[in-house]
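re the bet — no i am not wrong, look at it urself. input seq straight from the record:
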Amino acid sequence: MLRAAAVVLAATLTIAVTGAAQARTAAHSRAAAQGRTGASQVRSACPVPSPGHAQCLALIRGGTGASPAAAVPMGFGAASLQSAYDLPVTQGAGQLIAIVDAFDDPAAEADLNVYRTQYGLPACTSANGCFRKLNQEGVAGSYPAADPGWIVEMSLDLDMVSAACPDCDIVLVEANTNAVTDLAAAVNTAANLAPAAISNSYGTQESGAMLPFAADYDHPGSTIVASSGDSGFGPPEFPAVFGTVLAVGGTSLQTSRNSRGWTEQAWSGSGSGCSAYVAKPAQQQDPDCPMRTVADVSAVADPNTGVAVYDSTASGWLVVGGTSAASPLIAGVIGLAGNGGITPAYPYQHEHGALNDVTAGSNGTCEKDYICTARPGYDGPTGLGTPHGTAAF
């Protein structure tokens, strides 16, 4: 099934740039539509990018932005996420997590600590050495221009790392723009700091033009983590598609009366697919895709079961989802485990009992194949599953 699909994808990905952009616009619109439940409406924080640029993948629940953000938190807070993923949050002290985003968030530090205060997490400030903000060249100062959509993304990323690993240190590296060249340069700057993990909550459809950037997302000693995308089943996204990157898909998370107290299914927007360009890494043994399959692992991403985020630029508390939430959460879990630098192969070697296997839900149509439909064991939308403690990381 998917062997033939891989050939089709290869042909599809050679279409003109304008056609790819139109397809991406349609796919993102479908993801937003899938995120509507009753009166709830979902919008992308960032517009569809121009060629050679990446889109932040945060999805905001709650309308078009005309109405103000909530005055009090809605969505899952830190304690809920810690409970859902059985995280031993007293670990992680001294571990550094890097976040790479585009443009500037002038209120990043202040907003981060509103979130942390709300959920009883220790302060993370530049004064106490927990928080740093650097530009693309690694300098604290001379930051790029601010962008409201990417500010939401940065708030989400900082809050999710904090929820997963309250005692981790955090460095935010701001690329000059959302051009792929700038984001790759910012990843290299982050890697120079030797963090446990580098989270990348952005993406653009894979193409041959992305392949020269593979080395920028390969830094032994730091785990590179990236969102799998929010457009469901289809061509995978850069940079998650690289075999050196831990690609993070998304789930819908809900409370339950079962023994875990939570239940998850594949989120309909979770990015998954069979690469037309990137060779299959040795750890992947799935049968129907001869190339790299996305994703590897997953965490909450459905904006309708989204997370609480504080962003003063958007006037307060928001409910945000997208695989943008899942990537920094997984980066935080790696820091919590004190196991920075694990390769994407590591969870495949430690999956049994260390991950919550997600076995329901789908993100598109591919003849009910595992690359678009959750099932026991590995599947495309949720990978190996979601964290059950830190043993898989």
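see?? The chain has a mean pLDDT of 90. told u. also The longest helix spans residues 17-34. so pay up
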